[in-house]
Amino acid sequence: MADLLWDDVKCFFDLDLTGSLPDVRVPNASPEDWQAVLDLVAEKGWKYQYSEGEAVLSMPWAETVLSRPTDAECPELQVWPTADVLAIFRFHADDEVDFDVDLRELQGQDRLDVLCDFLREIGRRLGKPVLMDPEGDYGHPLLGFDVEADRVVLLADPQAR
């Protein structure tokens, strides 16, 4: 059974209300959590591309990426959990795993299931919540992986939207 039903959450996937690139994050993370995410990407066989500026490079160790000088260009890891759904990880801080998803790619139940599966995989691996905030509205999650429930749950009232 699906974690969430499209008809219950489609308002959270409205580009005008949520923005096209909501912020997904794992708070209270560590460099070890970042490494666990990199390992998960490799283990799952998800297609990925790591880049620093225009240079496409091999997958680094999290410690190496996170120890870059503060004025260095922010590295980016693009991950495709399926061929038509992209998550973009940015290594802004070592204490929060953060990435964007594109809501234009996440319309309908099938794509919602892909997102839920992806959030669940990350949350289970880290044993931490994975939260999705509206674009530019940090700290007000709409939905996320709940560790205790072991599934993706609503964290905001869709009727309030």
What's the short version?
The chain is 28% helix and 29% strand. It has 161 residues and is of the alpha+beta class.
Q: Which spans have pLDDT < 50 for at least 5 consecutive residues?
A: none
Number of helices: 5
Quaternary state of this entry equals single chain
How many strands?
Answer: 9
The residue-averaged pLDDT reads 93
How far do the termini sit from each other? 25 Å
Overall shape: globular
What class would the helix/strand composition place it in? alpha+beta
The portion of residues assigned to helices is 25-40%
How are helices and strands ordered from N to C? HHEHEEHEEEHEEE
List the strand order in the largest sheet: 3-2-4-5-6-1-7-8-9
The Rg value, from CA coordinates, equals 15 Å
Largest sheet: 9 strands, antiparallel
Q: Tell me the β content.
A: 25-35%
What does this structure look like?
By secondary structure, this protein is α+β, with helices and mostly antiparallel strands. 28% of the residues lie in helices and 29% in strands. It contains five helices and nine strands. A nine-stranded antiparallel β-sheet has the order 3-2-4-5-6-1-7-8-9, with helices on one face. Strand 4 and strand 5 form a beta hairpin. The longest helix has 18 residues. The protein is globular, with a radius of gyration of 15 Å. The model has no long low-confidence stretch (mean pLDDT 93).
